[in-house]
Amino acid sequence: MKNILILFLCFFFSQPNHAHDQAPLIESSIDDPIELSKKIINEGADSWNEDAKQRILETYGSGNSAITANKNYILLESPSLVFDYFQGGFANSQELLSKDLFLKILNQAVNSPDIVSAEVAKASQEQSLKEYLLAYEIVKKFKDSNSLSNEDAIKFLENRFGYNKLSFAKNLTDASSENYNTVTDKKKSKKVISKINFIKKTYPSQIPLINALAELEEFYHLLQEANIGLTAYVPYNNFKNSVYKLNKQRISERIQWRSSLEIKYPTNGTVWIAPGPVDIEWTTSNMDESKNIKFFLTRDDVVVQELGVFKNNHFEKDVKLRKGLPAGNKYKIMGIELFPLNKYHIAKYATPYFTIKKEDKIPEEIIVEAPAEIVETPADVVEIPIEVKEVTVEPVPEPAKVVKKPATPIQKPIETIAVVEEEKKEIVVKEEVKIPNRTVFEGRKISYQKELVVDNEIITISLYDHGRADGDIVSIYLNGEQIVAKHILTYKKKSFEVKLNSNKSNDLFLYAHNLGNFPPNTVSIEIKDGSSAENIVLNSDLSSCEAVLINVKQ
Fold first, then answer.
1. Which long-range contacts (CB under 8 A, 24 or more apart) does 526-529 make?
2. By C-alpha distance, which of 461, 439, 459, 553 is closest to 503?
3. pLDDT, mean of residues 520-525
4. What pLDDT does residue 101 have?
5. Is residue 173 classed as helix, strand or coil in its secondary structure?
6. What is the DSSP letter of 257?
7. Pick from 28, 55, 32, 58: nearest CA to 43
8. How many CB atoms lie within 10 A of CB 409?
9. Which residues pair with 194 in a beta bridge?
10. Which of 358, 365, 330 has the alpha carbon at shortest distance from 274?
11. Distance between CA 192 and CA 337 in Å, rounded?
12. Model pTM?
């Protein structure tokens, strides 16, 4: 699996060489990203001036999206760094890859190494140019202001390799297809074809990226053993070997400078008195003070209060605990970085268990409800507008009579007013107001991703971890009732039968109790109704849940 990820790696961090001098790659013991960035900029000044930028643009294009490269071919850029790539926090394990495209890439790798190499080169060149230009703008900003933030320094270090990779990609583009080693092992070649057929039969139309990478790594090793296709193509091997060191260095640096969070107080042995004001103390690394951190109070690993969003000042005083918290010794504080620099790695931390006690008599001045929080919503969370219809009730000359109407699917029973007119004495029923689907559960927003129709009211639901098994703990709710409680997700499916309400739309949603090592919680769910099956993916964090609606065919 380790071989394929750099393909995708290049999509996020490419680095080519140019038809001019390369920027020096400094391997330094400097562990401060700001100081290392300044050293690289000063020692490679010729790479970051206006003349260098213009030469690069003339050679490699404008860096806009007009280039028709398919980014997915970067999966083959440096296929031996898959695990390192995920460890560095670069890849989005929730991304899906078209099975048809994936099979096309694999078949080309076997039968048309020159064609697939050209596609890899195009994708690498396009991404590398974008990264160089991003690094260039950071250098320009630094020269103008003579200051460099920690965030900009890390961005520069991650993207500077684009300069060095450009020429490698161009060399591969210009390579002759005659450099092809045709010595093959026919017995091992059959294993390559068998792997392609296995992928074709096993996966649906969209393959989770993490699964595709695992299959790609195994496929690439089989290709090497058979010495056919891409692995026997000399220009590709030269390119792959050239970029390996650059990609390896980038991953190592990114791991070193990932943001981190540690809560120093409360800790094991702490006793808080509720309700009342409390303090929170924490430390961070590679995180600017302007960043925000959101804190939660949990009991038995279930969120019981959002404590607030605070600037990264390492200390917050007089945080209000809500009234009604029960006494116990299974409380934790969890902190989560908001708007992280690397969206695939979010700094977070949970304290050990500590104790909350209640006072027998609480002075009135202490009993203060926590003020309504202003919670910053991350950019990738979509607010779902709820349409509210205004209903005007006309004046009623005589006492109104209340009539209850039965509920219809996805509606709650509501009261309507029957007005008795004096002259005709007819009962006129006002139009019923439709109630929207469940949009909030225990303070968390619910967003509906899909609506399904099944043939039977008895269905089988199977769930397993979508992506890396990292300790995600989830519950599954059907129509507001818990049907799976605090389940630890693994790659092994957990299956159960449930009965749907055939007279309404049934809402099924995912509730996260933690964020695992790679947030958010993501679960793959297979729904079978006896004759057909549907696979869906739901995400959840500590403030939102994704859901689907399930209807029984009438």
1. 526/461, 526/462, 526/463, 526/493, 527/452, 527/454, 527/459, 527/460, 527/461, 528/459, 528/460, 528/461, 528/462, 529/454, 529/455, 529/456, 529/458, 529/459, 529/460
2. 553
3. 78
4. 94
5. helix
6. T
7. 28
8. 14
9. none
10. 358
11. 44
12. 0.55
Residues 6+ apart with CB under 8 A from 532: 454, 455
Q: Contact, 450 vs 548, CB < 8 A?
A: yes
Q: What contacts 198, CB < 8 A, 6 or more positions away?
A: none
Cα–Cα distance between 142 and 533 in angstroms, integer?
A: 55
Which position has the token pair 């009342």? 276
Q: Which two tokens stand for residue 399?
A: 């006492």
DSSP calls for 41-71: HHHTGGGSSHHHHHHHHHHH---STTS---G
Tokens 């098994």 belong to which residue? 469
Structure tokens at 118: 């050209």
CA separation, residue 526 to residues 100, 182, 202, 464, 535 (Å): 22, 44, 15, 9, 4
Task: Report which of 231, 42, 40, 50 is spatially closest to residue 154, judged by C-alpha positions.
Answer: 40
**Rounded CA gap, 220 and 324, in Å?**
58
> Which of 447, 441, 482, 487 is CA-nearest to residue 463?
487
* β-strand partners of 416: 403
Q: Which two tokens stand for residue 262?
A: 């540690």
> Alpha-carbon distance 462 to 28, whole Å?
50
Tally the residues of the chain: 554
Which domains are assigned to the chain? Answer: 5-256 (no CATH), 260-358 (2.60.40.10), 387-435 (no CATH), 440-552 (no CATH)
Tell me the chain's radius of gyration from C-alpha atoms.
Answer: 29
Q: Which of 405, 369, 377 is nearest to 543 (CA)?
A: 377
Which amino acid, one-letter code, is at 130?
Answer: K
* Count of CA atoms in the C-beta half-sphere (13 A) of 210: 18
Q: Give me the amino acid identity at 392.
A: T
What's the N-to-C CA distance of the chain in angstroms? Answer: 46
The answer to whether residue 125 scores a pLDDT higher than 70 is: yes
Residue 68: per-residue pLDDT: 67
Higher pLDDT, 146 or 361: 146
- Token pair of 363, please? 């002075």
Q: What is the DSSP letter of 381?
A: P
Summarize pLDDT for 326-347 with one digit per residue, the tens. 899 989 999 988 888 766 677 8
Torsion of CA 114, 120, 125, 126, to 10 degrees: 130
Among 119, 112, 111, 106, smallest CA distance to 11 is for: 119
